[in-house]
Design a protein that fits this description.
two-stranded antiparallel sheet, 3 helices
């Protein structure tokens, strides 16, 4: 008798419904239980976060430190991420500046 195991692929909706108290990562439809990181990993992550965070002060980017849920379409395993979008206030400021430059005859 030939026995085979049917592949089961879970979706992001399945992932959101799990409430077993265990952190999971869903990779190509397959769930993986995530162990807590080692202390040395956390120390290195903290130092990198401080360096990047200090560099980004006053810039229109922000840093988010793990753990957080994110859906990616690439093979990544990042503990520190960067969001490069301008916030609404900076976009308005840029638009006002461009409008003033056009009025003054300096182009767009």
């Amino acid at each position: 008798m030939n026995a085979f195991i049917e592949d089961i692929y879970y979706t992001y909706a399945d992932y959101l419904s799990w409430d077993d108290g265990v952190r999971h990562e869903l990779i190509y439809g397959e769930p993986y239980a995530m162990a807590s990181p080692l202390q040395v990993h956390q120390e290195v992550s903290r130092e990198i976060s401080l360096l990047i965070g200090n560099f980004l002060k006053g810039k229109p980017c922000k840093m988010i430190v793990a753990p957080f849920d994110v859906r990616l379409n690439a093979d990544t395993d990042d503990d520190i991420s960067r969001s490069a979008g301008f916030d609404r206030r900076l976009r308005r400021k840029k638009a006002r500046r461009q409008k003033l430059r056009r009025r003054a005859g300096y182009g767009g």
